Amino acid sequence: MKALLLSLLLLPLSALAQAPVIQISGANFRPLPLAVPAPLSVDEGGKKLANDFDEPFLFDLRASGLFQVLDRASFTADPKEGVTAGSINFSRWADVGAESIVKVQLGAEGGTLRGELRLFNVGTGREDFKASHAVPTSEPRQLAHFLADALYRHLTREPSPFLSRITFVRKAGSNRDIFVADWDGTNARALTSGGIHLLPALGPDGLVAYTSYRKGRPDLYAQRPGEEASALVQNGQMATGVAFSPDGKRIAYALSQGESTQLYVANADGSAPKRLTDTPFGINSSPSWSPDGKRIAFVSNRGGSPQIYVMNADGSNPRRLTFQGNYNQTPDWSPRGDLIAFTARDERNAFDLFSVEVETGKITRLTQDQGNNEEPVFSPNGRLILFTSTRDGTPRLYVMTKEGTNQLPLPMDKGGGLTPDWAP
Known about the structure:
The protein has about 425 residues and is mainly beta.
């Protein structure tokens, strides 16, 4: 991050002041037609790592929903064209419909991979933005995410999700293991090995909380990659569905006993639990915190069928939010505060994704007629949604915009993914 800030500080203040800011949402939003030629290399080291950089860089830009990344097969410019304004034939790029061009130059020396990104405006023929960064040669994907994030920040004045982390469950025979990965599902690292571990949630400083059957019943544990697991909730009852508060100081979870399931909050280490709901013979589950930590969305069947409710974080003033459908579940509250995404079963008994406006209750359908789509979770900036889909036959992770557009599978290793969570 310091390197990025230094790179930005090298820009003239006038260039930063005049640079356009893309408004991502709104009825008039149109993805920016962007030409991204293959990265150029200044040496053999950069050439060898160019493909490892290029794949994640292109995926970041395509998945953002911000750009219409043009097909390289349509390019008519010289592939060896330079990376400065004076060396670019802008009319060639205008001919293929590009409004902006991103040029990247790579070089590797002494175990370090360096990348420099330049953004050009095709209409004016001017360089609008420049950023550079260096990583070990073993991490070309991290360089790609960093430069994509720099471009995203420049054009939107907000952070991208490209430097964030996700967690998810992967099935292998009878085992269910927790993995932590880069935002696009790559570089996945197993947190558990063997057994049944479910519903992971990302907390502060890489901490992952999850439900585990390692002692034969569902208890809550917390763990960081490479460290041993520690118990959060072990009291002889069924504890599931943990969620960290936005400040990471509290957890919310469901506790089942007999024929009822109630919600609790506790300190992040599981101490000082407090019961929030009290519906005899009712089920309350799947807590999700509002971004200010003052409210919790959850699922309850107190009205007869599972629906999405909202209550204060102390359990007061519960309010039913969804009235359409008879089986709504897995709410996730957007970091922007305005929407809650959830899973619903439709009239064909298929599961699809919807969002509901917290204040008005307005419902928007996000997926339809493409297998079962479940378990939505917002990106840290609230612009994208990660979810599980069976549209290709087996469950795997997909990403889309919060409006439901631009649905893409993550380029992760084979093995699929379930119940994702997403955090900075």
